[in-house]
Design brief:
transmembrane, alpha+beta, eight-stranded antiparallel sheet, transmembrane helix, Jelly Rolls, globular, 3 helices
Length: 260
């Protein structure tokens, strides 16, 4: 009777269910933000989970939708730097509390009309500390990353052109304060720059911020953001633990079946 109970416990059907449920939890990570700006009213600011200043709007004009898709979408977020006294800013909260992960992936689509003021992305930590800080387009057309106390213009990468969409993907190791950056031009080339450093070490990322490096005059910059995607990638140890446990279960099942 005991043997039959164990056989039912370690049946192939149960193992399949365990594999599906456990793999989905441990190996896929958690999606924290997945926003294509389609749910907001055009002409107004993006609402929760976003916080934004004036001159940040959800737009449905011809430039607003990323050419990366998805098909049928019509809106994106528009930033216009029209006032030299302040810098327009939009930020989205990152809540990774309770997550056990080694890599944070941040991806978004970007297109600039005019780059004056240098459109900028910041990954903030507790107390507003800048972790990652990079100008998405300098006056020379390159991406520039602030590593420690100085900006490093990535002249070995691609030069960005106005009115073209680019997909930025960051693979971020919070523990080592390093990240890789991949910039993909729609229909064009893809360039990856590894081993970039943070401006400051942070232990807990709290916000992703889009603004400008400096305020400028009324002839200022304009850019669009679309398809913001943020997810955690689980620690390798979680996957190894899962595979180890599943291996023991499978071996136990096979041994007991062979000795029936």
């Amino acid at each position: 009777m005991k043997t039959n109970l164990n056989l039912r416990l370690f049946s192939p059907h149960l193992l399949s269910i365990l594999t599906i449920l456990t793999t989905g939890h441990l190996l896929s990570g958690s999606v924290l933000i997945d926003d294509d700006f389609e749910e907001y009213a055009a002409g107004g600011p993006p609402t929760s989970p976003w916080t934004s200043s004036s001159n940040i709007t959800v737009s449905s004009n011809v430039n607003a939708q990323s050419t990366f898709g998805p098909s049928g979408d019509t809106q994106g977020m528009r930033s216009r730097n029209l006032n030299g006294s302040f810098t327009p800013e939009a930020s989205v909260e990152i809540d990774s509390s309770g997550e056990s992960y080694s890599i944070l992936k941040i991806q978004f689509d970007y297109m600039f009309v005019t780059q004056q003021g240098n459109p900028q992305f910041i990954l903030e930590g507790d107390n507003g500390t800048n972790g990652i800080r990079m100008m998405l387009t300098t006056t020379n057309g390159y991406v520039s990353v602030r590593e420690g106390n100085s900006f490093n213009e990535l002249t070995g990468g691609m030069s960005l052109s106005a009115n073209n969409w680019y997909r930025f993907t960051q693979s971020i190791d919070i523990g080592s304060s390093t990240f890789s950056l991949t910039v993909e031009e729609f229909g064009g080339t893809t360039v990856t720059t590894p081993d970039l450093s943070f401006e400051n070490s942070i232990s807990n990322p709290t916000e992703a911020v889009f603004n400008y490096n400096a305020p400028i005059s009324s002839t200022g910059g304009e850019y669009f953001i679309d398809n913001v995607f943020i997810e955690t990638i689980p620690e390798p140890g979680s996957a190894s633990l899962y595979l180890g446990v599943m291996s023991v279960i499978v071996v136990t099942f096979l041994r007991r079946r062979n000795h029936r």
